[in-house]
Amino acid sequence: MTILDEINANKRREVAEAKEKISLDDLKKSPFFSRRTISLKAALHKSGSSGIIAEFKTKSPSKGVINENAEVTEVTSGYVAAGVCGLSVLTDRNYFGGSFENLAKARFANPATPILRKDFMLDPYQVYEAKAHGADLILLIAASLSKEEMLKLTELAKELGLEVLVEVHTQEEIEKLNPLVDLVGVNNRNLKTFEVDVETSVRLGKLLPESMVRISESGLSSVENIRYLRKAGFEGFLMGENFMKTDDPAKACAEFIKNL
């Protein structure tokens, strides 16, 4: 069993427990459920866009604790002030130290910035959760879903006004994409081995449909990485650990974008 298999099995148990506690009707009563969502795709296409999507996470399976002292409101507000295009907030607690509380805090602190709910999405219930807690888009990991499952979750997200970012790591996973997908993220980290190679983005980027917005994820640590990937056709760059591992993630982000 890979770490991804383990995470998914645990996530299915979590979702089953959540369904017992909070009904879909209750999720739909959330004040966030009626809000107009914000487009990350549009933010990336704005003139002068930095392309940076900054992530808030305090730990990961590969690195352990990254930053246990970071406060989500302070960090995400600092990211936005630094000029990011969007935010990514982890909601998986067991493996990434995330929470819905963090997502809601980021939403309240940054009402005009698109926010990705970063989690392992396997069930339609989770799409409703994302909407109810203030997300603007969801992540679908191709390695965790069949083509049919991905289409079902994408269709539901679009019905709820959410954008969809699909994460791929292999050519076979690209074949699971459907025309409703808004953005495609190439994960430079192999979710089965956790090895990182930025060339994965370049290699797979050439195989993606021209109409889809390309985002490179994981292992991005230098301005040179971003410039190189821009030349390869990438418009967005999901960065978390590079900022979160510092004492002041927002300051690190600001300095990075300034150097771009």
Structural features, described:
43% of the residues lie in helices and 17% in strands. With 260 residues, it is of the alpha/beta class. The chain has a single domain, classed as Aldolase class I (TIM Barrel, Alpha-Beta Barrel). The chain has an eight-stranded parallel barrel, surrounded by six helices. Helix 8 (147-159) links the parallel strand 6 (137-141) and strand 7 (163-168).
Labels describing this entry:
260 residues; alpha/beta; TIM Barrel; eight-stranded parallel β-barrel; two-stranded antiparallel sheet; 13 helices; globular; Aldolase_TIM
Blueprint (SSEs and pairs):
Elements lengths: L2 H19 L2 H5 L11 H6 L6 E5 L2 E2 L3 E2 L6 H11 L3 E5 L2 H4 L3 H10 L5 E4 L5 H9 L4 E5 L5 H13 L3 E6 L2 H4 L8 E5 L11 H7 L7 E5 L5 H9 L4 E4 L1 H4 L4 H11 L1
Parallel strand pairs: 1-4, 1-10, 4-5, 5-6, 6-7, 7-8, 8-9, 9-10
Antiparallel strand pairs: 2-3
Helix pairs in contact: 4-6, 4-13
EC number: 4.1.1.48
Protein name: Indole-3-glycerol phosphate synthase
Family: Belongs to the TrpC family.
